[in-house]
Write a structure and sequence with these properties.
about 220 residues, alpha+beta, Glutaredoxin, four-stranded mixed β-sheet, 9 helices
């Protein structure tokens, strides 16, 4: 018998460590699938909520936000590329020219959960941004990405052209801010255990096994 765990994955689609953390978590879940059943929910977090839709150049943004030089940025990007490659995720960061506002992407993710395709859309958005370098604030891009995974493109465009799910996304963001979530990815298990950062597969595996064992013992 497997132990069911609810996992809330708080993240942003322009966060490279969120892509790494998700791949690591999923591979860890594959390793413990004989003892753990996971119900994953993707929760919104905006790294750059004040950015306009056209975004800001990566170099300008990261140099202003973190003081990175072009050389430091290049080294960081190579480290990300290598880490992603080890997990089966392709970072083609030369194509990623800008950082974008992601509020509309989070609205689509909220909708996709009700459609049973939230995880697929999350992966598609991460791929569109980090592998293809696409603008994930552009409504045409978002509509296309939604269609790629079998969501209704017409409905996606209707949502994007309105304020649908805006209040729900804001409410969820505020909830996690009030829980003192200030960095992503933040992985919350059963509303009780917190794992932060793009951890290695082994770290997630160990945590999942420990939490599942504690929960199983408590239910006996």
């Amino acid at each position: 018998m497997t132990t069911p765990l609810r996992i809330d994955f708080v993240s942003d689609v322009v966060c490279p460590w969120c892509a790494i953390g998700l791949k690591s978590l999923e591979q860890a879940l594959e390793r413990v699938n004989s003892t753990v059943t996971a119900d994953i929910h993707f929760q919104p977090f905006e790294l750059n909520p004040t950015l306009p839709r056209e975004g800001q150049s990566v170099l300008e943004h990261l140099s202003k936000k973190y003081g990175l030089s072009p050389e430091q940025l290049a080294r960081n990007q190579e480290s990300l590329r290598e880490r992603g490659e080890s997990l089966g995720f392709v970072f083609d960061l030369e194509k990623r020219t800008h950082i974008y506002n992601t509020f509309d992407a989070h609205r689509l993710l909220h909708w996709a959960e009700a459609e049973g395709k939230q995880r697929e859309l999350k992966h598609a958005l991460l791929h569109a941004y980090f592998t293809e370098g696409r603008n994930v604030s552009d409504h045409d891009v978002l509509t296309n990405v939604a269609g790629r995974i079998g969501l209704d493109e017409e409905r996606a465009r209707e949502i994007l052209n309105s304020d649908t799910y805006g209040a729900e996304v804001r409410q969820a963001e505020q909830h996690y801010q009030q829980q003192d979530i200030q960095a992503v990815p933040s992985v919350i298990i059963d509303n009780k255990y917190l794992i932060q950062g793009g951890q290695p597969v082994e770290a997630f595996e160990q945590a999942l096994q420990q939490i599942a064992a504690e929960k199983a013992a408590q239910s006996q």
